[in-house]
Amino acid sequence: MKQFSYTVKDKNGIHARPAGTLVKFCKEFQSEIQISGKQGTASLKKLFSLLGLNIQFGDEVTVTVEGPDEDDAVQRIRKLMSENF
C-alpha cells in the first residue's frame, strides 16, 4: 500500500470536469485507489463518489493505492494532481 497527501490548489476545487479527468485516469490502473478528505473516503474510479466528497480549494486529501501497479499509480496520480488540481 502506498499513499500521499495533497493540498488542492485549484480555486474551484475538484468539480465535475477535473473529477472526470481524474476518474478516467485512475481507471487505467489495476490497483484500488481511494481518496480521503474532510467528508470521508471515496473510490477514485467512481465519479459520483468523488464528487460527493465536495473537495474545495485548500482542502488536504490523502490518496491511497493498493495493488500490483501501486508504485506507478502513485507517481502518475501525484503528477496529474500537481499539474491540474
Give a written overview of the molecule.
By secondary structure, the chain is of the alpha+beta class. The protein contains three helices and four strands, in the order βαββαβα. The protein has helices spanning 16-26, 47-51, 70-84, and strands at residues 2-7, 32-37, 40-43, 60-66. It has a four-stranded antiparallel β-sheet. α1 runs antiparallel to α3. It starts with a strand and ends with a helix. The mean pLDDT is 96.
Rg from alpha-carbon coordinates: 11 Å
Helix percentage? 25-40%
> Unreliable runs, pLDDT <50, ≥5 residues?
none
Q: Strand count, sense and closure of the main sheet? A: 4 strands, antiparallel
- Following the backbone from N to C, one meets helices and strands in this order, namely EHEEHEH
The SS-based structural class is: alpha+beta
The quaternary organization reads as single chain
Characteristics:
85 residues, alpha+beta, 4-stranded antiparallel beta sheet, 3 helices, 4 strands, globular
Element layout with pairings:
Blueprint: E1 2-7, H1 16-26, E2 32-37, E3 40-43, H2 47-51, E4 60-66, H3 70-84
Antiparallel strand pairs: 1-4, 2-3, 2-4
Helix pairs in contact: 1-3
